[in-house]
Amino acid sequence: MRAMQPYETLDAVPAPLLDIRDLRVSFDTPHGLVKAVGGVSWSLSPGETLGIIGESGSGKSVGLEAIMGLIKSPPGHVSGQVLFDGRDVLTMAERDRRQLRGEKIAMIFQDAMSALNPSLTVGTQIAEVYRLRRKCSQAEAERKAIELMDRVKIPSAKTRVGCYPHEFSGGMCQRVMIATALALNPQILIADEPTTALDVTVQRQIMTLLAELQREDGMALVLITHDLGLVAETVDRAMVMYAGRIVESGPVDALFETPTHPYTRGLIRSMPRLDGASGALHAIGGTPPAAGRMPRGCAFHPRCEQRVDRCLTERPNLRMVAKGQAAACHLAEETRHD
Amino acid sequence: MTDTPVFEVRDIRKDYVLGKPGLFGGKLRSLAAVRDVSFTLRRGETVGLVGESGCGKSSLARTVLRLNEPTGGEVRYHGRNILDLPKAEMQKLRRHIQVVFQDPYSSLDPRFTVRRILSEPWQVFPDIVPPARREARVAELLTLVGLNPSDADRYPHQFSGGQRQRIGIARALALEPEVIVCDEAVSALDVSVQAQVVNLLKDLQDKLGLAYLFIAHDLSVVRHISDRVIVMYLGQVVEEGPTDAVFRTPRHPYTVALLSAVPVPDPKQKDRDVIVLEGEVPNPIMPPSGCPFHPRCAHARDLCRQTPPPVREVGDARVRCHFAGELEPAADLRHLAGPSEPGDRA
Ligand SMILES: Nc1ncnc2c1ncn2[C@@H]1O[C@H](COP(=O)(O)OP(=O)(O)OP(=O)(O)O)[C@@H](O)[C@H]1O
Ligand SMILES: Nc1ncnc2c1ncn2[C@@H]1O[C@H](COP(=O)(O)OP(=O)(O)OP(=O)(O)O)[C@@H](O)[C@H]1O
Ligand code: SF4
Ligand code: SF4
Ligand SMILES: [Mg+2]
Ligand SMILES: [Mg+2]
Predict the structure, then answer these.
(1) I need a labelling partner for A259 at 20 to 30 A (CA). Which of A161, A169, B199, B267 fits?
(2) A243-290: pLDDT as tens digits
(3) CA dihedral B55, B57, B59, B61 (to 10 degrees)
């Protein structure tokens, strides 16, 4: 399972484009050190779609911002390796890293409306990087911006290229972010909840566009989302995060069919149903650990209905439980087919 | 349980004047974001509001709350037209009408701790929570939304997207309002936390008779929480009715397309047939003639291109389509009958 042990390849796969090894991120705060990401390893091949799901606050965004070299230090501390084409992004000079960002790896941020600059027109923001990198004229940059706005289905792009973000709806801002990320044809697109502000028809158009870019240019996609329907329909492989770690990973069909970690199972059971069954929704009992106070042993143990003594003291490692599927739970084998 | 109208909205309209004149320096353009929308929200009721991104949902919400000045129409709060209320009066009303904004980050002051963000409104309305209870109430509110009491000392930028969204929800609850407008209020939450928050909203509604205007793109949440649903397209309401009726027998072709496109959390249904909305994305600056949906509607006929459709009553629903009730939905909507149980096959 590559998500677990990047060194060991079970299936014959192309060399990874991105290889993350034991990535850790923590923050200094007035109340002590907060560990946001506690050692994750995974890799990504060209053209692949990797989904990341999991608890709100489990380190999904922080982990990906670290990969992009965007965690400010202090207060942040990042360790581990992020290998792109064999070079470690974390130790390279900021100049090289900036070159990589945008050109090779692009990111769509979670909070589209606050990630945009309120005092620049959307057209300028979409084409700015393109204009600087490709050294083209204003007029050509504007043409590019309009073309990209059309691609992400913003209506009347030509008339609205000169609008400011506050004149756009939430979903239109999100599409501006997507257009910006696509401007330079990146090899890897990291998309942090890219479609939360989009209705399902526009979401489908955007996902189709991304799939096209993957097919045509071999772009790899990392998709963070809470939308399990979107995960089921678009990704090949998914990782489930809880309290800063990967607790389960595997092919998406397996995750839905035989979810193994109790957290994954609780998550799947919590989905509201489309058929409108009424009554209270199922939610996992208890609360996630407070920042800076990670429980000993298995981080999920205070909320786990099947915990045993050993869970309180011994941390379970991610290990293979079936072909391609790995879980970090002491009882993974025993409880798998419940 | 649903009786007195809390909000009555009649023919509300919102036009925006676009800042920059056209490329050729011509006249200012205006954009009709909300076009003659009417609806009623009763005590203890949840009205779901769905529709295409950019169709005017947030604009409608902001206009009803007078965060935007409407271009026309009427908004009655307990029978009183609030559009003529002087500013000071309106300010007093605000404690009863809260909003959870679509963008959690920009609505939280980055300089303040969560404690201050949650307790600030109590300075303005001190009778809600007596000073001696405030510390405990902050802890309670944080726990209710699945955060930890120790989070009170942290600043907005130290939280994840979903955690910030929950701070926004806690802030809305702090004032013990009568109405909450939730604009994509649970979209950044994992499904378990989302379930917790949705259950909380429903509990409060049962206990206190809260009313919600619930804007969301997640149709399964909308189906779960709403008593009635409003579907908007290009600034207009195209379908409105009891939630079950709209989800079981959608009548407007746009509603059918929307429901058909919901992603289903079951990898086996990946290759299901989905209506793809072809044609130009609608331009709100120059809406199409006749029925605004006609360029993308599989059922469009000449009448649709020429004459705007009236609202027709079909069963319990109100539908803005010339042929409402006469069309067979051209879509596979079997997924609305529910995903196969995950995890129950070994
Ligand atoms: N600057 C910071 N200082 C201290 N703690 C931080 C900081 N930034 C993030 N955190 C904490 O790190 C953890 C991980 O945050 P992250 O944003 O990665 O979560 P996430 O998985 O993306 O959640 P969501 O689904 O809600 O977006 C959270 O508990 C958050 O409170
Ligand atoms: N301040 C403004 N000035 C000019 N146009 C605006 C302004 N605010 C919104 N608009 C336009 O009004 C239309 C409706 O926007 P609104 O934000 O209400 O959409 P929405 O339905 O909430 O969409 P989303 O689901 O993407 O959030 C859009 O075309 C938008 O660009
Ligand atoms: S290791 Fe123990 S506490 Fe953790 S998920 Fe497995 S059974 Fe539950
Ligand atoms: S009025 Fe005509 S174009 Fe409009 S939705 Fe009905 S059938 Fe389609
Ligand atoms: Mg996040
Ligand atoms: Mg909106």
Answers:
(1) B199
(2) 999 999 999 999 999 999 999 999 999 998 888 677 889 999 998 898
(3) 170
Domain annotation for chain B: domains and CATH numbers: 227-346 (3.40.50.300)
Helix, coil or strand: residue B55: coil
Centre of ligand 1 from the C-alpha of residue A209, in Å: 29
* Pairing assessment for the beta strands B228-233 and B5-17 based on DSSP bridges: unpaired
B230 closest CA partner among B312, B318, B294: B318
Decide: residue A215, CB within 10 A, 0-12 exposed, 13-18 middle, 19+ buried: exposed
Nearest to B198 among A154, A204, A281 (CB): A281
Task: Identify the pLDDT of residue B344.
Answer: 37
Q: Rounded to whole angstroms, how far apart are CA atoms A314 and A332?
A: 14
B123 reaches A (C-beta below 8 A): no
Strands A188-192 and A105-108: parallel
Q: Print burial letters for B101-140: b (CB count within 10 Å at least 16), e (below 16).
A: bbbbbebbeeeebbbebbbebbeeeeeebeeeebeebbbe
Give the pLDDT confidence of B212-264 residue by residue, as tens digits. Answer: 999 999 999 999 999 999 999 999 999 999 999 999 999 999 999 999 999 99
Strand order across the B317-320 sheet:
B97-100, B179-183, B211-215, B46-51, B228-233, B236-242, B317-320, B311-314
Sign of the torsion formed by the C-alpha atoms of A124, A113, B221 and B205: negative
- Helix and strand element counts for chain A (H, E): 13, 12
Whole-angstrom Cα Rg for chain B: 21
Q: Hunting for tokens 């930890």 — which residue is that?
A: B148
Question: Please, which residues bridge with residue B49 across strands?
Answer: B215, B230
pTM, entire model:
0.94
Q: pLDDT at residue A71 above 90?
A: yes
Residue B252: C-alpha distances to residues A132, A155, A199 (Å): 47, 22, 16
β-bridge pairing A18-29 and A32-44: antiparallel
Q: Whose CA is nearest to atom 1 of ligand 4?
A: B321
